[in-house]
Amino acid sequence: MSVEVQRMFASIAPSYDRVNQVLSFGIHHRWRKRLLREAHLEAGARVLDCATGTGDLAIAFARALGEGAEVVGTDFCAEMLESGPAKAARAGVQVRFQVADAMALPFEDDHFDAASISFGIRNVDDPVRALQEMARVVRPGGKVMVLEFGQPRGLFGALYRFYSNSVIPTVGGLLSGNRAAYKYLPETSAAFPAGKAFVALMERAGCYASHRALPLTFGVAWVYEGVVR
């Protein structure tokens, strides 16, 4: 991962949760809950959440899976992880946070029942490599779950592009003090493969027995599932 992107996330880490809540109107929490439901994991499962940021998805997994579960949240940016332990403690769950690159995960083969990444794979230098690494650390028959932005079409798509290109940089810049970061984030969302194009990346990874794609909120976001061979 480029040093520039790492520095960008470090700079917005203190305001990250607050800005996301404002810019998404809280919908990003519902999207994560949908990913969790689609994963269909049993209580006590082992889960790795890559690009966990401040830990929202990892904490949601820990809540859902209950005592005995092993939930690990990793991120390439140490500053993004700083608030995670306190958030997990407030939620009354145990999550282990660790700095790690999604393209070179420091875990054994076949260790987890599932791996996930939400709104992070588009920031990885090599998404196919990350998909392979997540599959490597998940047992055969386990799942890799991805939540990422898409590009909605039609009239709603036009409104969404206006919001992304004009409102997000302005409001995000005011709240975080880093307008460039909130210009970069929607630009990468608009350029990143979505729907069938992302499924093609999963096929290129060559380590999934099956996969599916589920659009959310008119295609603003997508949940992808890959079952590991």
Overview of this protein structure:
The structure is a single chain. It is built from 10 helices and 7 strands. It has one domain: Vaccinia Virus protein VP39 (Rossmann fold, 3-Layer(aba) Sandwich). 48% of the residues lie in helices and 22% in strands. It has a 7-stranded mixed β-sheet, with helices on both faces. The chain is globular and about 45 Å long. With 229 residues, it is α/β, with parallel strands linked by helices. α3 crosses α4 and α7 crosses α10 (196-205). The mean pLDDT is 97.
Kindly list the characteristics that best describe this protein:
229 residues, alpha/beta, Rossmann fold, 7-stranded mixed beta sheet, 10 helices, globular
CATH level 4 superfamily: Vaccinia Virus protein VP39
> What is the percentage of strand-forming residues?
15-25%
| Helix content class | 40-55%
Please state the structural category. Answer: alpha/beta
Short structural description:
The protein contains 10 helices and 7 strands. With 229 residues, the protein is α/β, with parallel strands linked by helices. It is globular, with a radius of gyration of 17 Å.
List the helices and strands and how they pair.
Elements: H1 3-12, H2 16-24, H3 27-39, E1 46-50, H4 56-65, E2 70-75, H5 78-81, H6 84-91, E3 96-99, E4 112-118, H7 127-136, E5 138-149, H8 154-176, H9 179-191, H10 196-205, E6 208-216, E7 221-228
Parallel strand pairs: 1-2, 1-4, 2-3, 4-5
Antiparallel strand pairs: 5-7, 6-7
